[in-house]
């Protein structure tokens, strides 16, 4: 196959495939980050407790604020275009701007990921800088990637088509977790470091290639008057003008926040989602700890690697069959069913006790799978909240980007609370301080988990029992809190149908010069 033939073949790829491949390059990095960054700094770099807490506290503030901040900075150039100024932006120009931003921020995300695994500063300082740099570039990449979902397609069918490929490529990217556990060794970190270098290089080059290809496709679509190749798969055609910008300055940020504070369903949703974000990251951060202390004597290294891989791949595959369930019964009912399932499985595991390795393996994996699967559906709920916000406040234009940013502002602290509360609970219940303990051998090793000296006989069961109770009581508590807050959420059933109908009436009353794809 010649170079010209290869170029023609890549340009002929559906836009949905190219867009979905960006999720692959994010996923192969972020899953490894979530799984290993805490253990790396605690067990390998030996960060002290004070530096760890300071780093996580600063990260909590930065992680919460950068979503609305970067969202406003990235969209300011579009919102400032007033109709009387003559600076009318086309939707194709907006797409190209976002693709160019991804072309820059994606490789920078890969470099910031690489900075975790190579010691280059005192552990406390490196921990703080790496967390803030990585999360900053991840936020920029996520914002532009999610915004492209709305910019490349307008109909629900086409957006579902794009989201399908995102889930498919995210599942493929999660396969990096299968390989990661085979390289993970706290005593000899060089092999894991080399593995992370390979991931970063592949991700960075992938972002460059995918964004260039997507930019060429969008530019080619603008030159073709009919552009059939992109129209069939959710792509964008022509120079559709953005005519909703004139209402961008009609409300101040303070007025918007006052309206949001009166949005009852928004408040109940962010309360539920805060717990959800906490539980997702708790599972990611403490997965290796549970394997070491609860299953190290019962499963091999390959089995541990398989459990890790399944727990990261399966949630993305869940999205492929949860979406039909949502269309049939509604997102509210499916999410409530997942909360009930989480509660039931946790109670069953609590009654069974810590001495059933097979049941423990199933519970550890399924707990993460169903928790992460729930997260994949909540974007649909936020979209419904955007509709309700528009109807309640009689807006001429939906404030979708700002609402997504405000959800992240309130819920992202759960990502920081997870490692802090988890390490504190373990120390409080067992007296086992992760910051002062010798490193543990990996799952499947011939030695028992404590290297030396062995604790007194009465202490070892206490640590194992503590890990078990942490494993089951956290999801029980989270499920109960979420079932209560979700029961107060009323944007479903008849009310949701009413909001959707009013939103459609408003849309018909304000005909925009935007083509449906």
UniProtKB/TrEMBL annotation:
Keywords: Membrane, Transmembrane, Transmembrane helix. It is a multi-pass membrane protein. Pfam families: MFS_2. GO terms for cellular component: membrane. It comes from the Eukaryota. Its main location: membrane. InterPro entries: MFS_trans_sf, TMEM180. The chain crosses the membrane at residues 16-38, 101-118, 124-141, 162-184, 190-214, 266-287, 299-317, 329-352, 468-486. It is found in: Membrane. PANTHER family: TRANSMEMBRANE PROTEIN 180. This is Major facilitator superfamily domain containing 13A. It comes from Ursus maritimus (Polar bear).
């Amino acid at each position: 196959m010649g170079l010209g033939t290869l170029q023609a073949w890549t340009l002929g790829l559906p836009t949905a495939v190219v867009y979905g491949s960006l999720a692959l390059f994010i996923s192969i990095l972020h899953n490894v980050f979530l799984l290993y960054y805490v253990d790396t700094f605690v067990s390998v770099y030996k960060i002290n407790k004070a530096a760890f807490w300071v780093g996580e506290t600063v990260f909590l503030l930065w992680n919460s604020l950068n979503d609305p901040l970067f969202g406003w900075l990235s969209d300011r150039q579009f919102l400032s275009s007033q109709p009387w100024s003559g600076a009318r932006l086309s939707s194709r120009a907006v797409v190209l701007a976002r693709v160019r931003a991804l072309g820059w921020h994606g490789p920078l995300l890969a470099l910031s990921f690489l900075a975790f695994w190579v010691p280059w500063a005192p552990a406390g300082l490196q921990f703080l800088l790496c967390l803030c740099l990585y999360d900053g570039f991840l936020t920029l990449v996520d914002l532009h990637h999610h915004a492209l979902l709305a910019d490349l397609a307008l109909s629900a069918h086409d957006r579902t088509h794009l989201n399908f490929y995102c889930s498919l490529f995210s599942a493929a990217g999660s396969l990096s977790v299968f390989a990661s556990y085979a390289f993970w060794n706290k005593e000899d970190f060089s092999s894991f470091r080399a593995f992370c270098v390979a991931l970063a290089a592949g991700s960075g080059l992938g972002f460059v290639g995918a964004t260039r290809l997507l930019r060429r496709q969008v530019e080619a679509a603008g030159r073709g008057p009919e552009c059939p190749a992109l129209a069939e798969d959710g792509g964008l055609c022509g120079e559709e003008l953005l005519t909703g910008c004139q209402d961008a300055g009609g409300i101040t940020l303070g007025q918007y926040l006052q309206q949001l504070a009166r949005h009852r369903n928004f408040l109940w949703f962010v309360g539920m989602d805060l717990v959800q974000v906490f539980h997702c990251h708790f599972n990611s951060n403490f997965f290796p700890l549970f394997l070491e202390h609860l299953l190290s004597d019962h499963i091999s290294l390959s089995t541990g690697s398989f459990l890790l891989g399944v727990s990261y791949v399966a949630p993305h595959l869940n999205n492929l069959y949860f979406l039909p369930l949502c269309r049939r019964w509604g997102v509210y009912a499916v999410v409530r069913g997942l909360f009930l399932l989480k509660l039931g499985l946790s109670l069953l595991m609590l009654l069974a006790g810590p001495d059933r390795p097979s049941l423990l393996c199933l519970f550890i994996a399924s707990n993460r799978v169903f928790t992460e699967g729930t997260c994949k559906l909540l974007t649909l709920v936020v979209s419904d909240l955007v509709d309700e916000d528009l109807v309640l406040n009689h807006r001429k234009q939906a404030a979708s980007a700002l609402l997504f940013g405000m959800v992240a502002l309130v819920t992202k602290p759960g990502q920081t609370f997870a490692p802090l509360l988890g390490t504190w609970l373990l120390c409080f219940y067992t007296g086992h301080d992760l910051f002062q303990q010798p490193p543990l051998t990996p799952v499947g090793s011939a030695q028992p988990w404590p290297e030396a000296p062995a604790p007194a006989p009465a202490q070892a069961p206490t640590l194992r029992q503590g890990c078990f109770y942490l494993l089951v009581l956290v999801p029980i508590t989270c499920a109960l809190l979420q079932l209560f807050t979700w029961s107060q959420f009323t944007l479903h059933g008849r009310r949701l149908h009413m909001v959707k109908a009013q939103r459609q009436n408003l849309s018909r009353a304000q005909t925009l010069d935007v083509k449906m794809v």
